[in-house]
Design a protein that fits this description.
A hairpin with a 5-residue loop joins strand 3 and strand 4. The chain has one domain: Na+/H+ antiporter like fold. The chain is mainly alpha-helical. The longest helix is centred in the middle third of the chain and has 37 residues. Helix 4 packs across helix 9, helix 6 crosses helix 14 and helix 8 packs parallel to helix 12. The strands form 2 sheets. Strands 1-2 form a two-stranded antiparallel sheet. Strands 3-4 form a two-stranded antiparallel ribbon.
């Protein structure tokens, strides 16, 4: 019997690693505050070279997994793809802006005092920086670990891959203009050239490199070697690169966290509410209205609920600086991503009997299937 695939060592304990990196970063900031500053000073067009290298290795393992040849089959399943695109680009960015502004700009504003100097040299309130980070998370739909969430929820892996590919391509065209639009509403300075440059570097370059290297490897080594050997070695690289970046980030933010230990909590509250709201909207409302099968509804809903935190971290660090409040907010997104998404996977599996076409071998599914068969026989 084939052993069921699960989260790898890094992904399973991602929250633990993030917490460890927070502690290590704070310690580094106290013991050697100049190290991260010197690394960040090695930059070209406001892009730190060491950080750019780390962030590239975050993105490349994700992009190389995508089989873009399957995008053409999306026409056969237009409903879940259309639902995902509408949620990701027409709803989610704006609800993130509204929810984060409501909580961080009003309810929790009194708990988030102070200002900071961002990369452009301008002084802004910290709460505005945190909202900016939340916005960058809201406009970055997940194109990586959602494949794992779909697998754990027994979703349609083929459809998930198609949606990942389409969202990766869509992000190239919509991420920068949508981000600039919403950041402008937040009264933050908008360096358009830097936005376009960062999206090109952190999405476009890994996307192109991933596509070309995948094509070359498959041609020379074959699909089995690619899946069993290459990806097996490459998969932990993305998380490892992320963790190195987090150490540098928190070496800057250590003093703020020590002085304001509840800052992480205040930022996490709207991010959690946004994630759950988008999931409920997609899974329990849109999917039911569109009469999607469970195996399509689960991944289509989770891809909108989860965030592409690597892109958000990369963009926030490039736009506002590695030590900015915006960068910290995106890191909080990483902190809550795994436990919240695992919770949503559990909700999917507990409620799968509410959808048609559920093939899970769970008690509630068997009972639901039996009742449907009885109704069909009676009819």
């Amino acid at each position: 019997m084939k052993k069921e695939k699960g989260l790898n060592f890094f992904e399973k304990y991602l929250t633990v690693w993030v917490l460890a990196c927070i502690g290590l970063g704070i310690l580094l900031g106290k013991m050697a505050p100049g190290i991260a500053l010197r690394l960040d000073a090695m930059s070209v067009y406001q892009v730190s070279i060491p950080i750019a290298i780390c962030l590239f290795f975050m993105m490349y393992p994700i992009m190389v997994k995508i089989d873009f040849g399957k995008v053409i089959t999306a026409a056969k399943t237009p409903k879940p793809v259309a639902m995902t695109l509408i949620i990701n680009w027409a709803i989610k960015p704006f609800t993130m802006y509204l929810i984060s502004t409501l909580f961080l700009g009003y309810f929790f504003k009194g708990f988030l005092p102070g200002t900071e100097i961002i990369k452009t040299g301008q002084e802004v309130e910290l709460w505005r920086s945190y909202i900016s980070g939340a916005i960058l998370l809201g406009i970055a739909p997940c194109t990586a670990m959602v494949l794992m969430w779909s697998y754990l929820a027994k979703g349609n892996d083929g459809l998930t891959l198609i949606m990942v590919a389409i969202n990766s391509l869509t992000m190239l065209f919509l991420y920068a203009p949508l981000g600039g639009f919403l950041l402008g509403f937040n009264a933050m300075p908008i360096p358009w050239k830097t936005i376009l440059f960062s999206v090109t570097i952190y999405v476009g370059l890994p996307l192109a490199t991933g596509y070309l290297s995948r094509k070359l490897i498959l041609k020379r080594k074959g699909l089995e070697w690619f899946n069993e050997k290459f990806l097996h070695v490459l998969t932990p690289v993305s998380i490892a690169a992320l963790l190195v970046t987090l150490v540098l980030m928190f070496s800057f933010k250590g003093e703020i966290i020590i002085n304001n230990p509840l800052t992480i909590v205040w930022i996490a509250v709207p991010l959690f509410i946004q994630t759950v709201f988008i999931f409920v909207l997609g899974y329990f409302l849109f999917s039911r209205v569109l009469k999607l099968s469970y195996h399509d509804a689960a991944p289509a809903s989770m891809i909108g609920a989860s965030n592409h935190f690597e892109v958000a971290i990369a963009t926030s660090a490039t736009l506002f600086g590695l030590s900015s409040g915006a960068a910290l907010a995106t890191v909080v997104g990483v902190l809550i991503e795994v436990p919240v998404m695992l919770m949503l996977v559990a909700i999917c599996k507990r409620s799968c009997h509410m959808f048609r076409g559920c093939e899970l071998e769970l008690p509630q599914c068997k009972k639901s299937k039996y009742l449907r068969e009885q109704e069909a026989a009676a009819g």
